[in-house]
Amino acid sequence: MTTVYVPGDSGALSMGADPVANAITAEASRRNLDLSIVRTGSRGMYWLEPLVEVEADGARVAYGPVTPTDVPGLFDAGFLTGGSHALGHGPTEQIPYFAKQERLTFRRIGVIDPVSLDAYRRLGGFAGLENALQQSGAEIVSEVTASGLRGRGGAAFPTGIKWKTALDAPSGVKYVVCNADEGDSGTFSDRMVMEGDPFMLIEGMIIAGLAIDAHEGYIYLRSEYPHAHETLKKAIRSAYDAGYLGEDVMGSGRRFHLDIRLGAGAYICGEETALLESLEGKRGMIRPRPPLPAVSGLWGRPTILNNVITLASVPLVFEKGAAFYQDYGMGRSRGTLPFQLSGNIKHGGLVEKAFGLTLRELLYDFGGGSATGRPIRAVQVGGPLGAYIPESLFDTPLDYESFSGIRAMLGHGGAVAFDDTVDMAAMARFAMAFCSDESCGKCTPCRIGSTRGVEVIDRIRTGTDRESNLHLLGDLTDLMLAGSLCGLGGLIPYPVVSAMKHFPEDFGATDVKELNLPF
Amino acid sequence: MTAVVETLRDKRGALLPILHALQQELGYIPEEAVPVVADALNLTRAEVHGVVTFYHDFRTRKTGRRVVKVCQAESCQAMGSEAVTAAAKAHLGIDFEETTPDNAFTLRKAFCLGNCARSASIMIDAEVHGRVTSENVGAIIDAARVEL
After folding, report:
1. Are residues B127 and B75 in the same domain?
2. Is B78 within 8 Å of chain A by CB?
């Protein structure tokens, strides 16, 4: 029987993957052909979605973007055996966009049925857990430390150190929490993992549990991801049934339970302490640190709290060893990062690469330039709290240190492109307005500062007392930068200041020297 | 209402799961629910009210049969979400947080639907639509209309 692969990823669904799958089934039965459809995650080449694949001569061959009306023609062209067609791209993994990547964390995504345990195991799944079960907590932690893995949520904190802090914290009860509140605009790698390879995340969380002897884990998932929720629920159920979760993990006598909790549309709950408050059933108000969550986290207990990609990177480290993972990357940024290309870009999608390629390579070699065909003027890297990067800095290598060197941040690896029609003063205003919408209200610089920020930028844009308002905006961003309790108020100056610094003309200033910028 | 609360009250950190379940059941969180939930979880009414009003998702008013969310975040802005928003508002004849007179649609804003590679995006209930423009948004919404 022939197998046809059609993504069930919500990005593919947003482009009509379901009607395409239905059309393929209908056409096959009309032609009395016996075929089965496997729904996969997405390969991450979203401009080709819905991307339909078949296996021919031992390789998967791609067709896309397919619409239901293309389906009879594909059958006529013999696509089931790799026949040539205008929508054909040849072997999927030889498409340059894909071939140039280094897929470690995403190696199974788009390939397998996300909720098939057999498929997961066939491609290395649970081998890492098996190895970790032979090790002590301290050994697990030192393996993670040796891999050089740093938090992929945005802060890039060394994962091994975080785990060691939780391991050393004296307490009988500890927790593992996964931050799946992927709220940054321009990011979707967490979603792709949860929809495309959920067992990898579950396996990573079990290993984290073994490391610190925690018996309970929670996935805090944003409510905007209903498909990820469904897939995770199915995967958790099968992991329980197969004995990977529960009272006796793989017959080891160790126990680990996992539950999903839904957020409720608050960006601030992606901040780790606000997330913990929300998990405990409260308003997502941030907690002052210290104490760190690793010492006093969920219900006051030591907690490993990591982003989806961080936890999903762990199984590979235990399957192939820390040295294998550590071998990728540059400087102190080890391993790979799933970059996400979006906004005004021709070939938007997911690019998993070792740290060190430049932003320009990402935008042009992968992204193919802007979708509108106009020059790319600015790119916001690292979500709504990330800096706007001008063309003159596109050659900066994408690694944590190089980006802090230009007062920017990689964050969760999202890059949002804007063409030359963008008004950067409007984007700076949006940053302040977003901060005022999403501020938890605990600290004054963020709560009041963001509201005042909107007002000041409005006055600048209308030319009301521009010079002194520009000066005031500089002071305000400096205060928010230094005086906010968490990363929301403390980082929102990045998009604002970078917009002013690199695009002063949009603020009615002729020279950046006229501006009173904090950095 | 009491049944929903009873099933979930013993979970740790039960408040958000209970509010989600109530909203799923009733379409919104009615004011009368607040004392019931507070009583079950040994919280004050102020604490429950505080949580209900903190989160954008929880609604205290009935909505239309389908909820249309238009993404306002940066990636969608780069692909014309402002025009999409204006077209959606004009098509439905309502503003954000309003419901059409025939009760078919409620319009809300969203900040990122995770479909940024196919911006601009809108979400109708649980389904995301990609590459939405000011030209096609009306047709996409019309196709999702459920009649009584």
Report:
1. yes
2. yes
